[in-house]
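Researcher: Quick sanity check before group meeting.
Model: Go ahead. Protein one:
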Amino acid sequence: MKKLYSLASILVLAAVVLAACGGGGSGTGASDLLGAIKERGYILVSTDPNYEPQSFLNTAGSRPADTKCPSDALTTAEMQGFDVDVAIAIGSGLGVETCFATPDWDIITAGSWADKWDLSVGSMTITTARQQILDFSTPYYYTPAVIAVRADSGLSTLADLEGQALCVGSATTYDQWLNGDFEGLGLPESSIYAQPPANVTVVPLPTDQECAQAIAAGREDFVGYVTSDTVVNANLAAGFPIVKLGSAVYSEDLAAAVDKSSTLPTATLLEEVNKIINGMHSDGTLSELSNKWFGEDLTQAPN
């Protein structure tokens, strides 16, 4: 089981990084965001430091002396995971160093980033609501959303969850699905496999991984949580006292995103990111990374 940072330390770290990191076009004469990134020599990517195996802190890593990353950003040596490797590949494709900011998820999905970072590579689901404020890349992988419950709960079907309390990450598609907000969820009907249980009490935490960690710590005010199948599989592998309940409830198309309200135009950056992601699909790099971190290839669009 990999060492997990305490919630308090992660929140302090996130607050520091959010407050001080600067991406965007501040202090540059570039005509667009891609030019500003190449001019400074690094791209600042927002992602989650507590979302194993997609992205999490590397407790064995140390900050390199020659990094171009701002002092309040994390370097590639200090982060690891599937999303992290995808972000590193994007930076390499652009010819720059990749650095990481770790703001809260609801701040990322709200848009209006104020140029604090350049790109989100954080397993963000494409939804119609988010498309109003963010521009998305080609999806780089696809995951089913599932429900996990405490192993001692005695629950085994979706119907058993009626009237129960479930945890979700705040401002996630899991939150929207559980609250029956299908308009906000913005997924095609073919991607939604089940309706949420009736009369459920929704318990939001900053991230869905914290729901799993709360159960492992003995918290009992909810019986389970909704999250990506990849997260539940990692929780099971880490020995968390949970079981997966039933099959997938919906499927997610996950992509990188840029802020529509960026000070500098983002079209050329998104175009280059799409070229890099499409190339990684074509040459098998994404499949290789998926197998490395998830033990299966999740990079092929569901039929």
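Researcher: Fine. The other one?
Model: Protein two, sequence then structure:
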Amino acid sequence: MAEVPGTLEGWFALHDFRKLDWARWKAVGAQEKAAILEEAVAFLNNAEKAADAPEGSSACYAIVGHKSDLMFLHLRPTLEQLGAIERAFNQTRLADFTTQTYSYVSVTELSLYEAYARGGSEDAAELAKSPFVQKRLKPQIPDMPYICFYPMNKKRGEVQNWYAAGMEERRLMMREHATTGRKYHDQITQMITGSTGLDDWEWGVTLFAVDALPIKKLVYEMRFDEVTAKYGEFGEFQVGTRVTPAKLPEILG
């Protein structure tokens, strides 16, 4: 039996993708549209401040391409609080003009072998308090203009099966993978969330970037890492730009 690596978990995450009904939206009068947007701006302001929970983080993004128009990213301590912030948007009038094209539910995750390597302690209680672990489990959404999100699995095929590989083999491959990622540390911040048992994929990867092109270069370079070349399976990619509450009326017109 392959050894099961332990994990530490933090905040729950919701990637909430929305498509706007532009035909209906364009038919709304200017005064009514302004009132709808004022309500939406107030919602987003409160979400970003985590006014609905003891702690957390939220942000909105304009998605480029046909898959979605907006993405709301919410991080909250409990699943109940995550559901509450989703329903809070659904109760706004702007939500009446949107459909939820996709959503992803997960929780921030850190493997124990990475936590031991970077957290500076072998004691689990002390380890959880370390700045590195806290930053990974309770991340504040960075103030970066670009975002890319995609879900992924590790293969469980008859020939290549990640879950049948030995612990040391997996550790070495993930170490190589992390080395590739660190080349881009000044351009990209990565958030890994686990979703086994919570959604259809095993992990969600969210990349926050200072420019769009490093996202492409990082993902391409990682394809050559052994762990990705042998075991990586990916869902749809969605990319977009940060929308502050004040900018929402400009984006939606």
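Researcher: One line on it for the slide.
Model: The beta strands are 7-20, 57-63, 70-76, 98-111, 146-154, 188-194, 203-209, 232-234, 238-243.
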